[in-house]
Amino acid sequence: APTENGPAPAFSAALMLGERFTRIFGNPVAQPQIMGLDLEVSLTNERRAARLETARTAVTEARPGDEIQVEAVLRPYRGERIVRRLAIKVPTSANRGPLRILVSDGDTLDRMRRVNDASALRLDLGSTIALLNKQHANNQLYVSMLEPHPQAIIEDKVMPAMPASIMNVMDGMRGTQDMTVTGESSVSEASVPLDYVVSGSQIISVDIK
What we know:
This protein has about 210 residues and is α+β, with helices and mostly antiparallel strands. The protein has helices spanning about 10-25, 105-110, 115-120, 125-135, 165-170; strands spanning about 50-55, 60, 65-75, 80-90, 95-105, 140-145, 150-155, 155-160, 180, 185-195, 195-200, 200-209.
């Protein structure tokens, strides 16, 4: 879609495709055999972008296993606001205390799970492709539950809510090229598709009883 500010859509698409192709073709472990590339492009004559404006729930407290309704309001580049409602379930294993709900675009989630540069350079071809396939779409709105427990990322594998005993065993890998650790774990996720490129994020806090 056309834009009034920033790079042209064709340039942005070329950058996105080039970045992914480079990560595959430039893999330091194995040289892929690429025989061809099929690319389908759809063009629209209007700007299809929407920014998250507000997000809320009707509850401030919940119990493990409860389903929480989240309402999100997005403002498109032109036109009326868009309202979407999503349901997300509190894991039955959730501990008592604060639980954060992240309402966001796909890029925000991808940044949370992105391995560090040193680790990325050591990934084999299969792990690199697996990571690329796990990237979130930019035309969906996501709702994720975040628990205050460490999350470990090793190669293309995400291990949320790691117990302290396991983290102590794996602590020797922390900060090395083999392991990336984040302070929160995404333990539940829901999404809804939109006919827009979504941007923005907000946090909602819920107390688990």
